[in-house]
Design goal:
Strand order of the largest sheet: 1-2
Protein name: AraC family transcriptional regulator
Number of helices: 3
Structural class: alpha+beta
Organism: Caloramator australicus RC3
Shape: rod-shaped
Number of domains: 2
Strand content: 5-15%
Helix content: 40-55%
Length: 133
């Protein structure tokens, strides 16, 4: 990023070396253009630094999020008290508290995705292990 600042500094040095000053209309114009270029170069450098800081910050957030996702979604080794159930209507997987299956009064719940009832009590009497009743 310093190349822009270096080139503007070169132009300032060139203007000084050529004896361009504010005594003439053209001299005032060239010096004003070089000053504007210098301000633009400084602003570009500031934006570049802020962008670099933002990239570092986003990378840190991404790493934290990845770590959290690993902690939350890698539950294969733990029994957390929830049972995965697939809705027979929309086929979305939902997680139910194991206590729901022990409650005698509760025989269905409403799917949070499609609002259709999901029967949680085993009402099927067939012996087929692959039954989708």
């Amino acid at each position: 990023m310093n190349i822009v600042k270096e080139r503007v500094s070169y132009l300032k040095g060139l203007a000084d070396g050529l004896g361009i000053n504010e005594d003439t209309k053209e001299g005032r114009l060239l010096i004003a253009i070089i000053d504007v270029l210098d301000e633009i170069a400084e602003e570009i450098e500031r934006i570049y630094d802020e962008q670099s800081d933002l990239e570092d910050y986003v990378d840190a957030i991404d790493e934290d999020l990845t770590r959290l996702e690993d902690e939350i979604y890698d539950e294969d080794d733990e029994d957390d008290g929830f049972v995965e159930v697939e809705c027979p209507h929309c086929h979305e997987k939902i997680y139910l508290d194991e206590d729901v299956f022990e409650d005698e009064d509760e025989d269905e719940i409403i799917c949070p995705n499609c609002s259709e009832p999901i029967f949680i009590k085993d009402e099927c009497n067939c012996d087929d292990e692959n039954c989708n009743c």
